[in-house]
Amino acid sequence: MNNLSFKTGVDSYLSVLIIAMNAFLAVVAVGILLSLIGIV
Q: Does the pTM of the predicted model rise above 0.70?
């Protein structure tokens, strides 16, 4: 039972980490697009 809750915690932590990474990549991509538009 304890192992199950631990596994669930790890899974939720990983999913949050993946969502945060995707959000960070999206922000970086938008920043690069804006800088390219500013250069052009």
A: no
List pLDDT tens digits, range 1-40. 567 777 888 899 999 999 999 999 999 999 999 999 998 7
Q: DSSP of the chain, one letter per residue?
A: -HHHHHHHHHHHHHHHHHHHHHHHHHHHHHHHHHHHHHH-
Distance CA 15, CA 27 (A): 18
Q: Any idea what DSSP says for residue 4? A: H
Residue with tokens 């995707």: 22
Residue type, 20: A
Calculate Rg over the CA atoms of the chain. Answer: 17
